Amino acid sequence: MTTDFAAFSAAQTWHDFWHGQIGEWILSRGLQIALLMIGGLLAARFISWLASRISRRIDDDFRQSDALVRSESAKHRQAVASVISYVAIALLGIMIFVQITDILEVPVGSLVAPAAVLGAALGFGAQRVVQDMLSGFFIITERQYGLGDLVELTMGTSGDAMGTVEEVTLRVTKLRTADGELYTISNGQIFKTLNLSKEWARAVVDIPLLPGTDLVAVHVVLERVCEEAIDDPTLGALLLDKPELMGVESIEVGTVNLRMVARTLPGKQFEAGRRLRLLVVGAMNRAGIVTTVESAVAAPAPGHLR
User: What pLDDT does 118 receive?
Assistant: First the structure.
């Protein structure tokens, strides 16, 4: 008898709870708020998944193609996909917040004064964030650089950062250096951008010679290198046109510098420059022409002079 009474009492208490003021609020407004928050989280996850899928699709298209570098449109599309997902998630959060305030019957007019105070406080405290986002917006819309670009960023007194762009958002830019280090730079701190892989690049090769070297013979050898470079299997794939011999670049004490330049694919100027130097050194060695570096190596040490 006691057990039946206890069970009846518990069931009555449970019934009274759900039919009371708190229970009715949970079943009506509380359930709606919970469903809105769960739906918002799922929608945010879907937006992030969709943006990453688009980025992977663009990256897969590049890897499956014969192109050695990403096109400018592909770089821009990947950056825009990241920004759109960020903005969409922010707008989704605002919409859910407005819906929750409507369910709770919070008068919007009463939030104007607190929002103004909060906005002023955030305006002073979050100036850097707003500046970063505005700078990121202009970086992306003006196509200053995109994913995969080789850039050098000047950050005022903080120095320079050089590397390959791995991610661009409204707030930060991430660069991977040649040593594998990752820079995370706030967009608002960037004062100057040097894009080394915008549409095309230029490889510059300086050849130091002794002052008494026959420059006419050197010109003949280097012109032959320029003709053969475009047919080289490795170098030809990186060049946009035939390298050009610019002539004497500078005259210094004990050195005459000749300069050769070549237009290359974006970001491939260093690789092309190394290969072009290899061809130059081989051609000059076969022609018996000695550079200042070779003469310094071949010269005996001062203690061995007789």
Answer: 66
Query: DSSP code of 79?
Result: H
Provide the 3-class DSSP secondary structure of residue 265: coil
Label residue 194 by pLDDT band (50, 70, 90): confident
| CATH number of the domain residue 246 falls in | 3.30.70.100
Q: For residue 11, what pLDDT is reported?
A: 66
Residue 262 included in any domain: yes
C-beta pairs of 225-232 under 8 Å, 24+ apart in sequence: 225/260, 225/276, 225/279, 225/280, 225/283, 226/260, 228/279, 229/262, 229/276, 229/279, 232/275, 232/279
Measure the CA–CA gap between 67 and 151, rounded to whole angstroms: 20
**What's the whole-model pTM score?**
0.56
Helix/strand/coil for 145 = coil
Q: Tell me, yes or no, whether 60 lies in a domain.
A: no
